[in-house]
Amino acid sequence: MNLFALKEQLREAGILISFTGSFSHSIIEELGTAVKKYLESAETHKSAIMDVFSVYIEAAQNVRNYAERRGQSDADASIVVIAKRDSHYRIYAGNVVEAADTEALGRRLDAVAAMDKSALKAAYKDQLRRERGPDESGAGLGLIEIARRATRPLEYSFTPLADGRAYFSLCVEI
Amino acid sequence: MSIDKLHLAATASTPTVDFDPDTGVLQLAGESYPENAFDFFRPLLAWVAAYLEHGTTPVVAELALSYLNTSSIKSVMDLLDLLEAAHRAGRTVTVRWSYPEDNDRALEMVEEFKEEVTLPFFIVPVAL
After folding, report:
1. Contact: A50, B77; criterion CB under 8 Å
2. Taking CA atoms, what residue in B is nearest to A57?
3. B78-97 pLDDT tens trace
4. N or C: which terminal CB in chain A sees fewer CB atoms within 10 Å?
5. Contact B33 A132 (CB under 8 A)
6. With bands split at pLDDT 50, 70 and 90, how would you rate the model's confidence at B54?
7. What pLDDT, in 10s, does the model give residues A2-48?
8. What is the ipTM metric for this complex?
9. Cα dihedral sign for A150, A154, A155, A159?
10. pTM of the entire predicted model
11. Alpha-carbon distance A11 to nearest alpha carbon in chain B (angstroms)
12. Rounded-to-integer distance, Cα A121 and Cα A117, Å
C-alpha cells in the first residue's frame, strides 16, 4: 500500500479525520477532543466548531448505541469522517443496519429532512418532553439535533448487503 | 436526616459536580457527553430530589455547562423539572447559567431551557 498516495487522496477529498472500526466510548471521546482542538486552531467561528463537534458526537454515539442495542458482532464496519470542502464542513457516518430497521430509519430521516428550522425546533421541544421508552439508549433527540445544526437537508443512502442487511450512510453539511 | 455533599471531578465527557446541602448551591460546570448520560445523571437527580424534599434553604443552581449531548440535555431538563416543582411548591429556587460570551450555540441551548420553566432563571455571559 502506498501511504503517500493514500494521504494525498485524503487531502484532495478534504478529509480532516477518518476513523473506521468499532466505536468505543473512549475512541469517540479521544477523536472528539482531537476534532475540537484542530477546529479551535483552524476555525475562527465558534458556532461552526460547536456544530461540527455536536453533529460528530450525536452521529458517532448513534452508531455506537445502535450496534450495542442490536448486539452486532461486525460493528467494526462503522465509519465516521469529517471533511472540509470550500467553506463547508461535512460529517459522514456509516454503519450496518439490520433489514428490519431500514424502513423506520428512512421514514424518520425523511420526516426530519422535510422540516424547516421552526418545525425542527418544535419537534425538538416535543421530544424533550416525551417519556423515554424502556429500550431507548438515547433521548430520541439525536437526529433532530443533527438536522438543526445542518445548513442543508440531511442526505442518506442504504446500500444493500448480500445478507439482506444494508449499509447506512449519512451526510451532514454544516 | 442530613444529606452529604456531592462532589465529582470533571472528566473529558462529564462536568464537575458540586452540590452543597449547607449553602444550597448546586454547581455543574463543563461539558457533558458521556457514554450513558442517564446513568451519570441518575444519582445527581436522586440527590437533588432528596434535598428538595426537606428543609427550606434557598437553592441556587449555578450551571456552567457549555456543551451537552442530547441525552444529557434530556437529563438536565429532568433536573430543571425538579427545581421548577420545588419553586412552585414555595421553595426559593434560582438558576444562574453562565456561558462563554463568544459561544452563541451555548446561549441558544440555555435560552431553550429557560423557555421550559417559570422559576427565576438568569443567563450570564462570561467575558473571555
Report:
1. no
2. B69
3. 999 999 999 999 999 999 99
4. N
5. no
6. confident
7. 999 999 999 999 999 999 998 899 999 999 999 899 898 987 788 99
8. 0.91
9. positive
10. 0.92
11. 29
12. 6
